[in-house]
Amino acid sequence: MVLKVYGDWVQSVQRVICVLIEKGVPYEMVPISMAKGEHKSPQYLEKQPFGQLPYIDDDGFVLYESRAICHYIALKYPDQGTPLLPTDLKENALFHQAASLEATHFDGPAVAAVVERFYKPRYFHLETNEELYEKAIADLSKELDVYDHILGKQKYLAGEKITLADIYHLPYGTLIGEIGSDIIATRPNVNRWFKELASRDSWKTVIQETNKAWGV
Ligand SMILES: N[C@@H](CCC(=O)N[C@@H](CS)C(=O)NCC(=O)O)C(=O)O
C-alpha cells in the first residue's frame, strides 16, 4: 500500500514531501483542510492528538511530527535515493547535532517571523505586529551569524554531506526570503548553503506543487 500523507501543502508537510522525493518513495496526499478545521476533528485527533499537519499512514503504521517522519523514511530506505542519514557513529552524532540546531536555534524565531508576516495576513486576516516581527528577525539574525561561521568551514550543517538536518530548514528558510527579509541572502555562507538546497529538484517540485495547490 502506498504511503499516505495526511496534510496539505503547508510547511511541515512540505518538509516530509521533500524527503519522500529525495528518497524516491511514492506517496499519496490525503487532503486535510485547515480552513475547514478538519485537523481538529475527533477522527483526525485520534491519529494526531495535537491537531496539526501532517501525519502519515505507512501500511497501518501511523506517525506524526514532520521531523520524526523524515527520519523514519530515511531509516526505512537507507539504500534508495539520496543518502540523508549518516550511519557512521560520529557522522550520525554530527547529524543529530545539526538537527538540534534547526529545532532549537532556527525554528522558533523563523516560525515567529513567518507567523507575523505570512500566516496572520494571508490566513487569519490579522495585521502583522511589526514589533514582534522585528524581534523575531533580530533573534534569528543572531543565530544565523553562528550558522554563517559554521558554514564558512563546511559545506553542510553536519559536515561535507547533505543530511536531513539541512532539508529541515527549507520550508521556513524559503518563507523568510518571501516575507521580505534579507537575513539569509546577506550572510555569504548561509546564502551559498541555502541557495544550493533550494535549487534541488526535490524542493523545486515541492514549490511547484504548493503553488499549484494554492493557485499561485
Ligand atoms: N512539530 C510539528 C508542527 C506541525 C505544524 O505546526 N503544523 C502546522 C502546519 S505547518 C499546523 O498544523 N498548524 C495548525 C495548528 O497548529 O492548529 C511537526 O513538525 O509536524
Automatic annotation (TrEMBL):
Residues 88-216 form the GST C-terminal domain. SUPFAM superfamilies: GST C-terminal domain-like, Thioredoxin-like. GO terms for biological process: glutathione metabolic process. Keywords: Transferase. Its EC number is 2.5.1.18. It is an enzyme of class 2 (transferase). It catalyses: RX + glutathione = an S-substituted glutathione + a halide anion + H(+). Residues 1-81 form the GST N-terminal domain. One of its GO terms (cellular component) is cytoplasm. Belongs to the GST superfamily. This is glutathione transferase. It comes from Hebeloma cylindrosporum. The lineage of its organism: Eukaryota, Fungi, Dikarya, Basidiomycota, Agaricomycotina.
